[in-house]
Design a protein that fits this description.
hydrolase, hydrolase activity, Glyoxylase-like metal-dependent hydrolase (Beta-lactamase superfamily II), Metallo-B-lactamas
Length: 318
């Protein structure tokens, strides 16, 4: 069921409903918006299902285009909400930050840390921030390899961190299908970012590449992603995405030298779908997060290192 994402070039999230004797179990729920809610409700009705009968919602990851409507589904049906424990922890932190109203303070500190120019920081401070409500806290926290509560079927959680710390793919073992969320998409690559930019002891891109290898080793017929369209050859597509990131790592290495450069300078030097000068502030922050994730891999491979400890973050070739 395509559930719209208002104002987003992805257009919609593909939400899947799996039948069971206790009612349908949804894979993701879609963006929290009146139009999205109507599309989800009408999509279920087209298959003879009622949102009030939903048994549960498995959220592949906490991002709002996947988890946003889960709380409303729970209110309408009493359904449980499940996600991996690492994403459940992120949701708790998100809800605490919103309650404390310190999101903007954190955002400005991150820009200074990255080495953004004064104009960027001032513009962000003055710009009205669009409020996104945090997703509902899940009732259940799934572990890797755990079977989902889907009576009569075998839907197994496969932990695939990278796009989010607790991203899950879901292997329908009795149906020869894999629900891949945002982990493996047919034509585009998901955003892999490090946020905060210097968060210690985490390696989202390294995790993502290892997760690609993991799902590629699971033989399945049809792949059901959360965006675009269904496809086949999961292993082949996972390999294409891994090669893309190796090319990106080589591009980033070419921007480094013995002369320290800030994270912001590195991000601005990379090729993006639109010129850096035309990108919104939010897009630039996401680009900096992606650059930081790639730099972390280069650090762990012994190719790059951080120069100094203070603000802003600076990097050199090792």
């Amino acid at each position: 069921m395509p559930v719209p994402i208002p104002g987003n070039p992805l257009a919609h999230t593909l939400v899947y409903a799996l039948e069971s004797p206790r009612g349908p179990v949804l894979v993701d729920a879609g963006w929290e918006h009146l139009d999205s809610w109507g599309a989800l409700r009408d999509g279920l009705a087209a298959f003879g299902m009622d949102v009030a009968d939903v048994h549960g919602v498995v959220v592949t990851h906490y991002h709002p285009d996947h988890a946003g409507l889960a709380g409303r589904v729970r209110e309408a049906s009493g359904a449980w909400i499940a996600m991996h424990r690492d994403d459940a922890a992120v949701v708790r932190l998100f809800r605490e930050a919103v309650a404390a109203d310190d999101e903007r303070t954190w955002e400005l500190a991150s820009l200074r840390r990255a080495g953004a120019d004064d104009g960027e920081i001032l513009g962000t401070a003055e710009r009205r921030r669009e409020r996104i409500d945090p997703p509902a806290q899940p009732d259940r926290e799934l572990e890797d390899r755990e079977l989902v509560d889907l009576p009569g079927r075998r839907l197994r959680a496969v932990w695939t961190p990278g796009h989010s710390p607790g991203h899950l793919c879901l292997h329908l073992e009795d149906g020869d299908r894999m629900f891949t969320g945002d982990h493996v998409l047919p034509k585009i690559t998901p955003h892999i970012g490090l946020c905060p930019y210097d968060l210690p002891d985490v390696d989202p891109l390294g995790d993502f590449l290892r997760s690609l290898d993991r799902v590629a080793a699971i033989p399945v017929g049809e792949v059901l992603p959360a965006h675009q369209h269904r496809f086949h050859d999961l292993a082949g597509r996972a390999g294409e995405i891994a090669r893309h990131h190796e090319e990106r790592l080589a591009e980033l290495t070419g921007l480094l030298s013995r002369e320290p450069v800030t994270l912001w300078q590195v991000a601005a030097g990379l090729g993006w779908r639109e010129p850096w000068a035309d990108m919104s502030s939010q897009s630039r922050r996401m680009a900096a997060g992606e650059a930081a994730a790639h730099l972390r891999v280069l650090e762990r491979r012994g190719i790059a290192r951080r120069e100094g400890e203070g603000d802003p973050l600076r990097f050199v070739l090792r």
